[in-house]
DNA sequence: GGAGTATGAATGAAGG
DNA sequence: CCTTCATTCATACTCC
């Protein structure tokens, strides 16, 4: 999937834009992706505007992000999971006459999509920014304004204190 | 890739920048988009059935189009304008306490969202009925006719360019 | 360094 | 009106 690539989201102001990764579009950090994926696998599929705002707000801790990014992320993730599933289902249908399910095939499917938490959307999804370093498995990520873009105002989302990994504790309350 | 449709339509001849696409759904030409956008920015937001019919008729000069396409276009454009504005506003509010800046989040927005139309909605903008309606292909569109105010101060929106097509002439009147 | 893939962004088309 | 789905465009990234 995604490996530890650092983020150099330089803000779009760089006119030169030759070498740097021109930030034409949002490039999520690994932590952001992790949180989003966790939320998704926890059952969140179509966050409301409020939820989007909260998620975006929390994720801005890890790097530049806008709420529309969160919105698009869930849209895309859901859609692509669906389409993957559709494709696989077609394959199954196509070959349903000839095979008897064995563990091999099962494994493949499971790995390809672990779909279908029956959409039991959580009632109250809360993201609390705590200082408890509960989970320390995250890779060492560094949120910092790239030197390429810090000069020209904007985008100095200094996180106040320099933490190794931002303390994000998300509690999901299912009903 | 799976082929379901075999119908192709190349987008508007020399309109440029349009790649050939399958014609599963309407793919507006650049001219069509321009006209629609102009109409929108002129204040038209929810065209009546008659207006839709006339716009569609005129735009058919530029390529294949149906009334429902115009209808959907205005629906989507209006909704997304609102939605974008809402999201952006929220983001701005959210980021108020982190930085003191001058042109902060404007980065992507300027490029992708050139929203913020002056929002100067002219009250009654009506497209004059030039000819009686045809209603040949439009389905059940529940567009309720708006009040008719046909009078004074009309201007004509003309698109001529350098092409060999008849000039578009949409006469709009507002009061 | 171009092909192939993953994915962010956009938008047409509905449904409710 | 609102939200959602499906499809497509655009771009970043990976891997030969």
Automatic annotation (TrEMBL), chains A, B:
GO biological-process terms attached to the record: plant organ development
Record-linked InterPro entries: HD, Homeodomain-like_sf, WUSCHEL-like
Domain Homeobox span(s) in chain numbering: 19-84
Keywords recorded for this protein, A-Z: Developmental protein, DNA-binding, Homeobox, Nucleus, Transcription, Transcription regulation
UniProt keyword Transcription present: yes
Record-level Gene Ontology MF annotations: DNA binding; DNA-binding transcription factor activity
Subcellular location per the Swiss-Prot or TrEMBL entry: Nucleus
Main localization, broad class: nucleus
Coiled coil: none
Gene Ontology terms: cellular component: nucleus
DNA-binding region: 21-85
Keyword DNA-binding on entry: yes
Pfam families for the chain: Homeodomain (PF00046)
Record family assignment: Belongs to the WUS homeobox family.
Protein name: WUSCHEL-related homeobox 5
Species assigned in the record: Glycine soja
């Amino acid at each position: 999937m995604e490996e530890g690539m650092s983020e150099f989201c330089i803000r779009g102001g760089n006119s030169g834009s030759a070498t740097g990764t021109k930030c034409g579009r949002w490039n999520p950090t690994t932590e952001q992706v992790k949180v989003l994926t966790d939320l998704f696998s926890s059952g969140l599929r179509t966050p409301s505007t409020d939820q989007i705002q909260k998620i975006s707000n929390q994720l801005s801790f890890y790097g530049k992000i806008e709420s529309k990014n969160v919105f698009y992320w869930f849209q895309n993730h859901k859609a692509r999971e669906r389409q993957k599933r559709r494709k696989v289902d077609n394959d199954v249908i196509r070959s349903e006459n000839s095979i008897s399910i064995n563990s091999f095939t099962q494994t493949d499917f499971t790995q390809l999509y672990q779909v279908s938490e029956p959409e039991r959307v959580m009632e109250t999804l809360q993201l609390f920014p705590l200082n408890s370093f509960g989970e320390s498995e995250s890779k060492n990520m560094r949120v910092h304004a790239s030197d390429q873009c810090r000069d020209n105002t904007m985008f100095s989302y200094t996180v106040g204190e320099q933490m190794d990994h931002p303390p994000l504790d998300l509690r999901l309350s299912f009903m």
